[in-house]
Amino acid sequence: MEAVAHQFQDFRQQHEASRLGMWTFLVTEVMFFGGLIAGYTVYRIAYPAAFAQASNRLDVALGAVNTVLLLASSFTMALAVRSARRGGRWALAGALGSTLLLGAAFLAIKGFEYAHKAHEQLVPGPNFRFEGPEAKPAELFFSFYFLMTGMHAVHMVVGIGVLAVLAALAARGAFTPDRHAPVELAGLYWHFVDVVWIFLLPILYLVGRHAP
Amino acid sequence: MKLLAVVFAALLLLTGLTVGASTLNLGPLNVGVALAIAGAKALLVALYFMELRHGPRLLWLFAAGGLFWLGILVTLTLSDTLARGWRP
Questions:
Q1: Cα distance from A188 to chain B (closest Cα, Å)?
Q2: Which among A40, A57, A71, B52 would be 20 to 30 A from A132, CA to CA?
Q3: Cα–Cα distance, B54 to B65 (Å, whole number)
Q4: Is A67 a residue whose pLDDT tops 50?
């Protein structure tokens, strides 16, 4: 077991400090995605009809399936933290592995969606094609779509990398009920990425569905 | 385990609810309903999966501080957009 770093009184204080540090980082991430969402909101208020039309070109079923996958991965991540506390070595490695696989499935579907959007010429740029007078603001919607989901996907890739390392360490028995802070901190990060998607689903996929 | 499973089930239920509600024409309420459901889901994740519920009060302060600054970011950004049509 690792010793308590000299600036801390005891293990508990060290543990709380590491959690607080992770939350502080996540707050900066809230600001990062918050800026994107604020920008999106400004243009959605400016071009409500175009954003609704453009949003309807997205596949709601795939968006919903991806939401379920990500929520399930958060559930298995929560189970991983629980296993870490109880000291179940293979239960922990299994839960981390499941989380990783669910996250990878999410990215695979996202990749399929991107390829489909490229095929439909909905990627902003010289090849963008959108029928009707709302083409320009619709292009703006897709800029936000790719930027927001893309930044979210980058966070997923980082999370999957972290999970792979943790799963390997867990299988080697590196975590004990006393020492598993990395699992808990990775869990906080993973749940945060889930929360970002919880907001991206309605603002990107669902905004235009009630419009005729 | 049981609590986590219940929270997961609630999250799935809310996802179905938001997808279903988006097909109804509620006028300006559509956005409100969608954001309220997303907020409820985020709260469930933060309280139970991220264990904010049993976290020290200092953690609550940090989380609330994040939301507060997000509120400033969004409100001040939108102040121009929303106030454009107003007459002095």
A1: 6
A2: A40
A3: 18
A4: yes
The token pair at A3 is: 């010793």
Q: Let me know whether B50 and B60 are in one domain.
A: no
Q: Helices B29-44 and A181-200, interaxial angle, to 10°?
A: 170
Same domain, B36 and B69: no
Nearest CA in chain B to A186: B50
> Which range of residues forms the domain containing residue B65?
56-88
Q: How many CB atoms lie within 10 A of CB A108?
A: 12
Task: Express each pLDDT in A74-127 by its tens digit.
Answer: 999 999 999 999 998 999 999 999 999 999 999 999 999 999 999 999 999 999
Distances (CA, A) of B76 to A140, A200, B71, B80, B87: 22, 21, 8, 8, 19
Distance CA B52, CA B60 (A): 7
A88 to chain B, any CB pair closer than 8 A? The answer is no
